[in-house]
Amino acid sequence: QVQLVESGGGLVQSGGSLRLSCTPSQSIFTIGFAGWYRQAPGKQRELVGTITKSDIPRYVDSVKGRFTISRDDAKNTIYLQMNNLKPEDTAVYYCNAGLTYYVDRREKVLDAWGQGTLVTVSS
Questions:
Q1: Which of 6, 13, 5, 33 is nearest to 87 (CA)?
Q2: Cα atoms in the 13 Å half-sphere on the side-chain side of 83
Q3: For position 30, what pLDDT does the model report?
Q4: C-alpha distances in angstroms, 8 versus 20, 22, 31?
Q5: What are the DSSP calls for 14-82, one per residue?
Q6: Cα dihedral 101, 93, 52, 47 sign
Q7: Which of 12, 34, 83, 118 is 20 to 30 A away from residue 105, measured at CA?
Q8: C-alpha–C-alpha distance, residues 77 and 15, integer Å
Q9: What mean pLDDT comes out for the span 6-15?
């Protein structure tokens, strides 16, 4: 099953930083448009931000100025840099992306999700 592999979660104190990474589990897939989501305990999954294939990021208001989404197409990887973390940022963070691949030279796109990585911010 195609997946996105995430890494970089962990425990950090309030005001600290973490960087999450997201890359396809198989090299035949190329990341296109991508987004980061998070789900806090007892809450619904929410969007954190997105990044286009042309490297244009957008963010929800609650993380603007603190989080940065970037991509390294040479590494086929999406990043979420999180600075000045707050306890309310505690959640499982998920990567979502459209993955491009080819079958008989025909381009196809598959919507994929990562398994989630836990970020815990202590006060």
A1: 13
A2: 6
A3: 95
A4: 4, 9, 19
A5: TT--EEEEEEESSTT-EEEEEEEEEE-TTS--EEEEEE-TT--EEE-GGGTTTEEEEEETTTTEEEEEE
A6: positive
A7: 34
A8: 25
A9: 97
Alpha carbon distance 58, 78 (integer Å): 14
- Calculate the alpha carbon distances from 54 to 1, 9, 24, 37, 73 in Å: 27, 26, 18, 20, 10
What is the rounded average pLDDT of the residues 20-39?
Answer: 96
In this prediction, residues 89-103 reach a mean pLDDT of 96
On the question of pLDDT at 2 being above 90, the answer is no
- The 10 Å Cβ neighbour count of residue 116 is 17
Distance CA 101, CA 90 (A): 34
How many whole angstroms separate alpha carbon 36 and alpha carbon 20? 10
Residues paired with 25 in a beta bridge? none
Whole-angstrom distance, CA of residue 7 vs CA of residue 20: 6
Polymer length in residues for the chain = 123
